Amino acid sequence: MPTRYAIIGTGMMGQEHIRNIALLPDVAITAIADPDEGMRAAGTTVAGQHGFADLRAFSDFRELLSAGLADAIVVASPNDTHFAVMDALMATRLPVLLEKPSATDASGATTLALRAESRDAPVWVAMEYRYMPPVARLVEEVRAGATGRPKMISIVEHRFPFLTKVGHWNRFSARSGGTMVEKCCHFFDLMRLIAQSEPVRLYASGAQDVNHLDEDHGGQRPDILDNAFVIIDFANGMRAALDLCMFAEGAYFQEQVSVTGDAGKVEAVVPGPARFWPGGAERVSEIIVSPRADKAPRREAIHVDERVLRAGDHHGGTFYQHERFLRLVREGGTPEVTLHDGARAVEMGAAAERSIRDGVIVSL
Ligand SMILES: NC(=O)c1ccc[n+]([C@@H]2O[C@H](COP(=O)([O-])OP(=O)(O)OC[C@H]3O[C@@H](n4cnc5c(N)ncnc54)[C@H](O)[C@@H]3O)[C@@H](O)[C@H]2O)c1
Fold it and tell me: Is the distance from the beta carbon of residue 251 to the nearest atom of ligand 1 less than 6 Å?
């Protein structure tokens, strides 16, 4: 009997989930839910193209849940729907993969994390960047001692502007949580993962300087940041910096993650989605290990299966995360990224938004 998935929200990311689930062994997608007729049809078509023609499509996710068609749920609806969708899902016994950010604000995210403690089935917050092969390798190298004692983390993301979404939900901080929550929760999560410590203090500077300035959505102008620097102190003495620029899609690499310690530096460099690069060419990512002692950096290309790369925009992260989520669904256990992790990432993002807005250092 295949493991049966249902997808709530079949926009861009929901369709990426469908393509990645299709690469897993012995699975089926049995149901989707999306209130938007066009996206419901697109989700049905993509599922059909990947061997799941026999599914039911609902406009209301509550009807999907009542139909009892699934063994696991993937939530890929807009950020401001996550709380209400999770509110309903909490009452079920189904494992859930919930797209980040778990909620648009820290109090909603914390409420969900507390409620999950008494729930029987696991909720895994989708943090695809942890599972990109070059980033996963960087974490392994740091754990294996390549940096010595790690002290500094730097994450640079220089990428394309926010894409157009159904209802323009990602153009407004009230609906997305703001850029620091919506996009950067990934990087705050990675910092916590690498540091193995909790953030204590944060300062950020940022603005909306270039993107979406001439857009008008029903009389409202987008209010989301398109560039920022964020500096974070961790309880164990480590420090981290994020450099985000969303008008830099000409850069060869989209993410550059580095960790430096008393014995060396490890860096992962990751290209952006091939579909936005001339010719649609896939580019390899790299890991660079630079010990202080021998001053001879080792560069290694990280090759990711082409089928996996083609299934999404996240350099394979979505697939490798799904492999592990499926193991959790079949064998039980604890999610690798909990609602508690999700809440900490939202809290850091909300603190960065506040630091930028008020020009203050925020204690966490
Ligand atoms: N982890 C990542 O790297 C990553 C990347 C992109 C998006 N995301 C996340 O995935 C989610 C969806 O983003 P997207 O880019 O696919 O947006 P999108 O607008 O392309 O798709 C969202 C879909 O959800 C539907 N929807 C709205 N309300 C709904 C509801 N109540 N029930 C079911 N469906 C509903 C919309 O009609 C739309 O089709 C967001 O939370 C976003 O932050 C994560």
Answer: no
What pLDDT score was predicted for residue 239?
98
At 166-194, the pLDDT tens digits run: 999 999 999 999 999 999 999 999 999 99
Question: Which pLDDT tens digit goes with each residue over 79-128?
Answer: 999 999 999 999 999 999 999 999 999 999 999 999 999 999 999 999 99
CA–CA gap between residue 86 and residue 339 (Å, rounded): 11
pTM for this model (two decimals): 0.98
Copy the structure tokens of residue 347: 């809290």
Half-sphere exposure of 304 (CA within 13 A, CB side): 30
* Residue whose entry in the numeric block shows the structure tokens 């295949």: 2
In ligand 1, the atom with minimum distance to the C-alpha of 15 is 16
Q: Identify the sign of the CA torsion 170, 172, 173, 175.
A: negative
Residues near 290 by Cβ (< 8 Å), separated by ≥ 6?
264, 265, 266, 267, 297, 298
Q: Tell me the sheet residues that pair with 239.
A: 152, 233
Among 18, 322, 37, 303, residue whose Cα is nearest residue 166:
37
Place of tokens 């969900």: 112
Domains and CATH numbers, the chain: 3-127 (3.40.50.720), 129-312+339-363 (3.30.360.10)
Q: Give mean pLDDT, residues 273-290.
A: 94
Q: Is the CB of 81 under 6 A from ligand 1?
A: yes
pLDDT reading at 281 higher than 90: no
* CA 192 – CA 199 distance, rounded (Å): 7
The residue contributing the CA closest to ligand 1 atom 27 is 77
pLDDT of residue 282: 87
Please state, in angstroms and rounded to a whole number, the distance separating the CA atoms of residues 191 and 151: 12
CA dist., res. 229 & res. 242, Å (int): 6
Kindly give the distance from the C-alpha atom of residue 121 to the centroid of ligand 1, in angstroms, as a whole number: 23
Q: Is 357 strand, coil or helix?
A: helix
